[in-house]
Design brief:
Number of helices: 3
Helix content: 25-40%
Number of strands: 6
Structural class: alpha+beta
Largest sheet: 6 strands, antiparallel
Distance between the termini: 60 Å
């Protein structure tokens, strides 16, 4: 006896196929927004910002990015980088802004992200 693929079965097949695809993409990509387990690492970070040579204090950085100067992020560090990059590209285009985001991933991998170069420097 041959089984028919009903509409309900085809929807389930498509749904689970997309889930598997999301897991595979999340495994090999920095953006894990649609993955089942995007919180598989934790990062400690510190953001240093200067505008026209003047260093911003903790409160100014907190108001600017809606996150503290120092903190812990349960997502991939690229989530923090993406948030800071988006702010700088949207609101601070014509200002002389320099951002250095130092981070440690899972207590082992150290690195820095520099803006406006948009460059990641690994310190291993």
């Amino acid at each position: 006896m041959k089984r028919k693929i009903t509409f309900r079965r085809s929807i389930l097949i498509i749904f689970f196929s997309l889930q598997i695809l999301g897991i595979i993409i999340g495994k090999f990509s920095d953006a894990r927004f649609f993955c089942w387990a995007p919180y598989d690492q934790f990062s400690f970070y510190e953001i240093n910002v200067s505008i026209n040579g003047r260093e911003l204090n903790d409160q100014e950085i907190s108001e600017r990015y809606r996150r503290g100067k120092r903190g812990r992020n349960n997502r991939n560090i690229h989530n923090v980088i993406s948030n800071v990059r988006q702010y700088e590209e949207t609101y601070a285009v014509k200002k002389n802004v320099t951002v250095e985001l130092k981070y440690v991933i899972n207590g082992q991998q150290k690195g820095s992200w520099i803006w406006p170069e948009d460059k990641i420097i690994s310190e291993q």
